[in-house]
């Protein structure tokens, strides 16, 4: 197994551990979205339920959203 495919399989294992829990997604353009990760695919497209866009101390409710994987920079558990 090459280092790249090993890194990719680790990425999807970690993302799988976040399913049905609250995550913070950092995206291109300095945007952050928080919500419940309900699904993802091999392109790192993410479906978040009860999502909200965070802007400083303010937030804007979005509901159910699809975040395109090519815009995702990082996914982490939300506190």
Provide the descriptors you would attach to this structure in a database record:
alpha+beta; 5-stranded antiparallel beta sheet; 5 strands; 53% strand
Topology:
Elements: H1 3-17, E1 22-27, E2 31-40, E3 46-55, E4 58-67, E5 72-77
Describe this structure in words.
The radius of gyration is 13 Å and the shape is globular. The longest helix is centred in the first third of the chain and has 15 residues, at 3-17. Helices cover 19% and strands 53% of the residues. It contains 1 helix and 5 strands. The protein has one helix spanning 3-17, and strands spanning 22-27, 31-40, 46-55, 58-67, 72-77. Strands 4-3-2-1-5 form a 5-stranded antiparallel β-sheet, with no helix packed on it. With 79 residues, the protein is α+β, with helices and mostly antiparallel strands.
């Amino acid at each position: 197994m090459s280092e790249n495919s090993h890194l990719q399989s680790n990425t999807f294992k970690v993302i799988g551990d976040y399913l049905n829990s609250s995550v913070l997604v950092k995206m291109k353009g300095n945007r952050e979205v928080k919500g419940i990760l309900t699904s993802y695919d091999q392109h790192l497209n993410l479906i978040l339920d009860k999502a909200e866009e965070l802007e400083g101390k303010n937030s804007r409710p979005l509901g159910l959203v699809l975040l395109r994987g090519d815009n995702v920079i990082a996914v982490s558990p939300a506190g």
